[in-house]
Amino acid sequence: MGANAVKKIHVSTTINGEPREFLCEPGQVLSEVLRLTLDLTGTKEGCTTGDCGACSVTLDGALVCSCLVLAAETEGREIGTVEGVARGGELHPVQQKILEHAALQCGICTPGIVVSAKALLEQNPDPSEEEVRYWLAGNLCRCTGYDKIIRAVLDAAATMREEAP
Amino acid sequence: MSTAVKTDFRVVGSRPIRPDGLDKVTGRAKYGADLNLPGQIFGHVVRSPHAAAVIKSIDFSDALAMPGVMAVMSADDLPEPGDRLLPGAEVEMKLKDISPVIMARGRVLYHSQAVAAVAATTPALAAEAAGRVRIEYEVLPHVVDMHEALAEGAPLVQDDIFTQGVEPPPTVPSNLSLQMELAKGDLEAGFAEADVVVERTYSVPMCHQAYIEPHACVARVDEGGRVDIWCCTQGPFMVRNMTAELIGVELGKIKVTASEIGGGFGGKTTVYLEPLAAVLARKSGRPVKMAMSRDEVFRASGPVSPAETRVKLGVTRDGRITALETDILMDSGAFTGSPLMPSVLFGNAQYRCDNVRSRGREVLTNKAKMWAYRAPGAPQSTVAVECAVNEAAELLGMDPIELRLKNAVEEGDVPLYGVPFQAVGLKECLEAARAHPNYSAPLGPNQGRGVACAFWINAGMQSSATLHVASDGSVNVMTGNPDIGGSRASMALCAAEVLGIPVEQVRPAVVDTDSVGFCDSTGGSRTTLATGGAVIKAAEMLVEELCERAAAVWGLEPEEVEWREGRALSRVGFGLDEVTEGRAAADSEQKVLTLAEMAASAGMTGGPLTASASLHAHNAAPGFAVNVCDAEVDPDTGKVTILRYTCAQDAGKAVHPAYVEGQMQGGAVQGIGWALNEEYLYDEQGVLQNAGFLDYRIPVASDLPMIDTVIVEVPNAMHPFGVRGVGEVPICPPMPAVVSAVNAAAGTRVCTLPLSPPRLLAAIQSGEAD
Amino acid sequence: MPSVAYTAPTSLQEAAQALAGTDNARVLAGGTDLLVQMRLGLREPALLVDVKRIPELTSIDLDGERLLLGAAVPGAVVTADPDIGRLFPGFQEGLGLIGSSQIQGRASVGGNLCNASPAADSVPSLIVNRARCHILGTQGTRSVAAEDFNTGPASNCLAPGEMLVAVEFPLPAARSSDAYLRFIPRTEMDIAVAGAAVALTLDESGVCTDARVAIGAVAPTALLVPAAAEALIGGSLDEASLQQAAAAASEAARPITDKRGTVEYRKTVVGVLVRRAAVIARDRALAMEG
Lengths: 165, 770, 290
Fold this sequence. Notes:
The complex is a heterotrimer of chains A (165), B (770) and C (290).
Chain A: E1 9-15, E2 18-24, H1 30-37, E3 56-59, E4 62-65, E5 78-80, H2 93-100, H3 110-123, H4 129-135, H5 147-163
Helix pairs in contact in A: 2-5
Chain B: H1 21-26, E1 41-47, E2 53-59, H2 61-64, E3 69-74, H3 99-102, E4 107-108, E5 114-120, H4 123-131, E6 134-139, H5 146-150, E7 176-184, H6 187-193, E8 196-204, E9 207-208, E10 216-221, E11 227-231, H7 236-247, E12 254-258, H8 274-284, E13 288-291, H9 294-300, E14 303-304, E15 307-315, E16 321-331, H10 340-346, E17 356-363, H11 378-396, H12 400-407, H13 426-435, E18 447-456, E19 461-469, E20 475-479, H14 487-499, E21 506-510, H15 527-554, E22 561-564, E23 567-570, H16 581-586, E24 592-594, H17 595-600, H18 602-605, E25 610-617, E26 623-633, E27 640-650, H19 657-676, E28 707-712, H20 734-746, H21 757-766
Parallel strand pairs in B: 1-13, 11-12, 16-17, 20-21, 27-28
Antiparallel strand pairs in B: 1-5, 2-4, 2-6, 3-5, 7-17, 8-15, 9-14, 10-11, 10-13, 15-16, 18-26, 19-20, 19-25, 22-23, 23-24, 26-27
Chain C: E1 5-7, H1 12-21, E2 25-28, H2 34-39, E3 47-50, E4 60-62, E5 66-70, H3 75-79, H4 82-87, H5 89-96, H6 101-104, H7 109-114, H8 123-128, E6 132-137, E7 140-145, H9 146-149, E8 150-152, E9 155-156, E10 163-170, E11 176-183, E12 194-202, E13 208-216, E14 223-224, H10 226-232, H11 239-252, H12 263-287
Parallel strand pairs in C: 1-3, 2-3
Antiparallel strand pairs in C: 4-5, 5-10, 6-7, 6-10, 8-9, 11-12, 12-13, 13-14
Helix pairs in contact in C: 10-11, 11-12
């Protein structure tokens, strides 16, 4: 019995605020459907075992690895991907500060870090360096040694605190 | 070659936002696995379950019977490599040492070696079909440890390896594939002169580059046999070249487009999937996408040679190094081609010493073919030399930086590899490290400090660049070197500097192999130096032409026109020294044409403004770096915490300082990982036990402090901007700095890396050196 | 991934029916172990029963006698819960140590328990806090003590068709607290090489009147170590009693040598962890009001 023999599931979901529908196999993970079916390739796959964080998305606001979520589970849920982080032609402060601090080299981990850091700052607007480091421990970066990433996130937090009413 | 080195810069040395930055923070940038072509199908590799075996038969019938399976292949679909060399390769390579890595022919030499491949309409179906390829093996004895491979009666990894570098050549095959020795002076006399002699053997584990993006590609073959490949690679021209040879297609029929690349560190300077995807695409008539899983990346793409280095160092009481001997044993995996030579030559080049001998032996084992990793080979021998220097400093009661300053190479010194140094910045780096607050920070109980310096040669090689000026005066810069760490920004800065325009007016692009002249791969710390050099050369050609055209418009001789601040200025009427913004505009005799004006009217002065340049760079200059590490050890568990870390490095001229710092920080952390936790673990069957990021433990954000950097700039006298390569030397000093810090903190002398908690705790509890 | 079917029931009854109706059905909670195992070909279930739409599995209920924690509540919700942090800080920390922030968005106490890894970070804390596991099957419900739930690596006491619904913690006595420590080579993202949980109660003079000690990653399942607890009870955790507890834990450990640690190393380190966790639990208990 091949994978093709399984009947596909119809899923209605919301992605980056927009209603989306797709068909998936029951065993297909969300990262694969985002990338292959919906062409949202900003979500990266570095390991598909939940160890690298490159596929980070939010699911009903919770930060998750999309490689460890079945696409079928997202029925009626809200998905947030890196493609939805910049709004109305404006970068999120995390994105802006990553650019200003040169906090990327190859950039493959960057979308996951953007999604992850944004989720952190939404629940903790004034994190310590240690808190940022532990929060981002699941976002592997092999290029930068993390230094500039941590500085960028701390700087983004400071900027957001200043901008907040 | 001697060029006047520029010292006053307009934009070089500034920190603009990288041109590809927006695409990379928003997820738009397309990496290897991000291209989806209409009608694409998915390839999957069938890999050997044995570390050594004869392939008796391959039966595809069950796989082919599955609906949706579109093509299958084995080594029978590839040309026999024979004894041919790979033409145009950066280093001499035999096809027979590459082709079986792409796909085994008749025999498998390591676990997870590619044996066959299938292509089907979905990834899941392809995986299932791969599982239905029936392969009959005759299992052979295997050996994965390099000492065991050298032992009497060890299984032969290959039957026809006769040690190279031995006279007369041996008549009996063995697993000792290569032997070399370089020496100068009189070693015995040197040790006789020494007051202190340190002799140790340091062992460095097998590791992996562990780039976050797995290898991936899409290949399409048209009805005329033209092959179109999209892939993540450090060298699209290398992919074109190797694919042509490996699948037997004319080079001119292959076009390679490099995607954005998610890390490589040397690991993407070869091909694994691209030739397979091309063959499957040819056989199926469909675009074929292939991507390795993380498991496959660890098991079957270029891991990094483990090595053992015996070092013997002689130093006089007043701190003069009188003799330095290294003897390196390096594991090459199943095929020759390890970085033994750089390990032999470069681990000792930081010191002036008259009596030096360095020997190396390369061993074959039933493991994946080792491949390049950042300063290939150098860290494995540098760790031994630098730890020995620290031990000598302890024995002499001398500050380790002081000892290094007494012996550090400078202009005119001749290293073992024979090329005299021009001006180099090692002493400046040592002084910078000594002056950094890290070096005098107080240490508490169970804390220790380690310092190390290191050398890396840096490469030049071939590069091309093409510049186009658009009608608004903006400039496209096209090169063929994938941007792995911010090189587009460097290319833009180099062009903007010469053209005298804002860097934002430059659009750098990495283009496919049909669209720009040949470029060697992004690697060897060569892109900013060599490809940047081609950009500078092309920009200078453009400036020359702009001056000629302006002269023609004004009826002047070209010598009467100067290019400054992005415009042509006539010299008529007054000396150039007097030209200033205000006067130029006010004086009616001063003629001015801006780049934008000249671009807009190019049709009337000779047509579009473009320039192409290429070069074979022989102006690479070595890089030196110094690291200081403070570490704390938990005496009850053996766990190491890095407290402070500082890197000083000679960049020659830092074109974009933020990305130079990034290279320093990233290299330091890779070295910290290699020193503390990263290692390949094999079981009795020769199967890798930790083929994932869970148990192959690269450093995570919470493992580290900030990594301080000091950029030293001693210009490379042979480069117009003084640039040196910066990408590789950062990984050379961390292992000895960390090992020395940890041993100082724990009161141990552990020489076997990684310094994992069990190993360190055992040493602490036994109270003796290993 | 191999062919598998998926269903997401919204009631316990539907879930029980789905589990009973298919051979080789598995409960899907956070999926952070199960989906990885499926990816690596270690498990090939025919049906995944997603229990995250069932109220009993996704709620936290605290009253004057017990805390009832739904088996599928994700770690991120547990670690953000101030009541759990006050009552069972060690349990909260242990669950919070599992994986990354991303894994915390999904991984649940029920999944950690049912996966039955000897190294599961939440299990020693469940044991020392006397948690009971509520199980639903076709024959009705039953409950077992946390220390009896797992029977070996990757095996637990659930019969076919049964599912874990919630874990119930009795509320601790006054001046009680707990702590959990694990050893990993890095600071995050690793599987425990050894783990230790201690829960204890002090009297008004600071003497330990009750204690439980459990250790993880050093035996086929997490182990309750009564001898270590006895070493702590009756004194105020002086040096000698801490040494004795550590020695008892090292003695009780029956680890293996694998890619993550050696027998020797694990036996040594688990004692160090017991000792350190006991001090933390005591300090926490001392810091509590009356």
